[in-house]
Design goal:
Blueprint: E1 6-10, E2 15-18, E3 22-27, E4 30-38, E5 44-48, E6 53-62, E7 68-70, E8 73-76, E9 82-88, E10 91-95, E11 102-104, H1 105-108, E12 113-117, H2 123-127
Antiparallel strand pairs: 1-2, 1-6, 3-4, 4-5, 6-7, 8-9, 8-12, 9-10, 10-11
Length: 128
């Protein structure tokens, strides 16, 4: 069984939070993630939700260097082409630009190398 973990990007703080940093907090039908005692910014608790952030799921797989692959990761795949990890059609894929060409992550995980992610390293996609 694969490990279920998330990370969250907060647009306002421009900060990535990882599974150990936050916990779910439910407001009626809306789930937000609260970063408890945010030691990195000394601002106390920080809420991350659909209005101010993006939640990304861990695929359960690691790249060729043993780094966990999550949604939003920019990866170098087969033949040196960069793509972005996405969850579509019930599976994790690497999407390449506006192309409809998708690569299954599971079958290619030993050939993938994470370069960064779309929030902290958007310049990587501009170089392509």
């Amino acid at each position: 069984m694969r490990e279920i973990k998330f990370r969250a990007w907060n647009y306002e703080e421009k900060e990535m939070y990882y599974a150990d940093d936050f916990q779910p907090l439910v407001y009626g039908c809306e789930t937000r993630w609260v970063v408890k005692n945010n030691a990195r910014t000394d601002k106390g608790d920080v809420l991350v939700g659909a209005d101010n952030g993006e939640l990304m799921q861990y695929t359960g797989l690691k790249d060729k260097n043993g780094v966990e692959i999550c949604e939003g990761d920019i990866v170098r795949g087969m033949r040196g082409i960069m793509g972005v990890c996405k969850f579509e059609h019930g599976r994790f894929f690497i999407g390449y630009g506006d192309s409809t060409r998708l690569t299954f992550i599971y079958e290619n995980r030993n050939k993938i190398k994470i370069l960064g992610n779309i929030y902290e390293n958007p310049e990587l996609l501009e170089k392509q």
